[in-house]
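Weekly sync, protein design subgroup
Attendees: M.S., D.O., the rotation student, P.L. (late)

Item 1: inverse folding check
M.S. brought a backbone from last month's batch and wanted to see whether the design step gives back something sensible before we order anything. D.O. pointed out we never logged the input encoding, so this time it goes straight into the notes. Structure tokens as presented (425 positions):
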């Protein structure tokens, strides 16, 4: 028995040593891992963000794709996978609203079809045959994101959902969207022979930038609560705005939320402060239960824009060098001599005072884009080139340069006319 007790005691001691060695090895491994990855994958992502965009960035974002845009110029101030194609969910309804405002009278009567009434949640609860004023349905569309409302509007304006989708796609191209494809008017996940219903963060920002220029769109999107009835007056409906950012921040111009299982939480908004107007668009910004991620990302991006960007004038007085005019002549005494002229750039005081949002360290470059020589004849006021202003290699403005005077071309005809003129006059 004594031998057995000693053997058992030795085994327990061995297990204890093994356990302690395991702890020590685990601890060493943890130190080694932390040496390679100092805090976490989040930290690593932030480091990658800093490498890509510089130290002064919004930081880590939850959204898979994001854009901060200057609404005035359309310039992207910050982007994260902004060209990646993704589903857009109910942010689609912004374009549906804009197209309805541009193509129809808000007081027109809209009839609800069986197709519209059968749409899935979220829905107003319309019934086939009901009639509403278009303007009332636009509040239902934008404030509470009702899917049945979107289809009723689409069928009213486009005849069919497919016809309205074609109108949406044409409008997207007119706005400047490069990779957006509409199938549904409500943003429900869909796919046809041409692909999936999708957009990019950049295109979505462009759509919102366009929408806030519509004077009817803004009052709708800024309304907190709205009550209306069907045309018969039998049923009354009340809708509350789902854009919670309206109550989180001052200066919110418009916003639209969205969610589908494929798209995740999406959001796009426009915000104005101290004369600066920004658009934020987010795609794939979390899935349940991360409904608040979009508000966090939006605040980060808006704070980043407001703090880092300010308006500055970019006009610089151009220096135009002399331009050689080949085969040019001014008078008989200067035959054989080189002829030069200068270009003239006329701008208004308003042009000189134009501003652009610039970040600290950014500078606008002025370039005189005029040829060193031109061929005669040259007419006074003829365009010779331009004064161009660039930011990060992209053209932001240009002004034409014209010839300040005319220069004739030397030729036998010119000699003949000159001699005739001098002899008789």
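Designed sequence read out in the meeting:
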């Amino acid at each position: 028995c004594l031998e057995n007790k000693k053997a058992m005691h030795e085994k327990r001691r061995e297990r204890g040593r093994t356990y302690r060695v395991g702890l020590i090895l685990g601890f060493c491994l943890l130190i080694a891992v932390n040496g390679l990855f100092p805090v976490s994958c989040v930290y690593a992502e932030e480091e990658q963000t800093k490498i890509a965009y510089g130290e002064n960035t919004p930081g880590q974002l939850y959204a898979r794709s994001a854009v901060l845009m200057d609404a005035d110029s359309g310039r992207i101030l910050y982007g994260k996978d902004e060209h990646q194609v993704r589903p857009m969910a109910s942010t689609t309804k912004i374009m549906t609203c804009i197209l309805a405002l541009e193509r129809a009278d808000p007081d027109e009567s809209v009839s609800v079809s069986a197709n519209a009434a059968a749409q899935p949640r979220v829905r107003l609860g319309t019934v086939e045959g009901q009639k509403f004023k278009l303007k009332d349905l636009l509040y239902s569309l934008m404030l509470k994101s009702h899917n049945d409302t979107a289809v009723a509007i689409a069928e009213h304006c486009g005849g069919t959902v497919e016809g309205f989708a074609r109108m949406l796609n044409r409008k997207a191209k007119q706005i400047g969207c490069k990779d957006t494809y509409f199938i549904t008017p409500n943003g429900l996940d869909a796919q046809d022979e041409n692909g999936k219903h999708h957009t990019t963060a950049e295109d979505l920002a462009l759509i919102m930038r366009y929408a806030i220029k519509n004077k009817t769109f803004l009052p709708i999107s800024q309304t907190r609560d709205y009550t209306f009835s069907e045309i018969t007056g039998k049923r009354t409906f009340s809708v509350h705005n789902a854009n919670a950012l309206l109550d989180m921040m001052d200066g919110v111009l418009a916003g639209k939320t969205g969610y589908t299982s494929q798209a995740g939480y999406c959001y796009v908004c426009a915000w104005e402060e101290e004369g600066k107007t920004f658009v934020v668009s987010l795609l794939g910004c979390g899935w349940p239960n991360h409904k608040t991620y979009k508000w966090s990302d939006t605040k980060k991006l808006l704070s980043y824009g407001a703090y880092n960007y300010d308006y500055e004038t970019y006009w610089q007085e151009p220096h135009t060098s002399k331009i050689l005019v080949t085969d040019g002549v001014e008078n008989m005494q200067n035959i054989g001599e080189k002829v030069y002229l200068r270009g003239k750039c006329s701008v208004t005081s308003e042009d000189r005072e134009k501003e652009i949002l610039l970040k600290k360290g950014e500078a606008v470059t002025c370039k005189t884009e005029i040829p060193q020589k031109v061929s005669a004849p040259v007419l006074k006021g003829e365009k010779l080139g331009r004064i161009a202003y660039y930011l990060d290699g992209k053209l932001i403005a240009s002004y034409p340069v014209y010839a300040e005077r005319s220069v004739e071309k030397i030729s036998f005809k010119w000699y003949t006319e000159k001699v005739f003129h001098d002899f008789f006059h």
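Discussion: The mean pLDDT is 87. The chain has 13 helices and 22 strands.
Action: P.L. to compare against the previous round before Friday.
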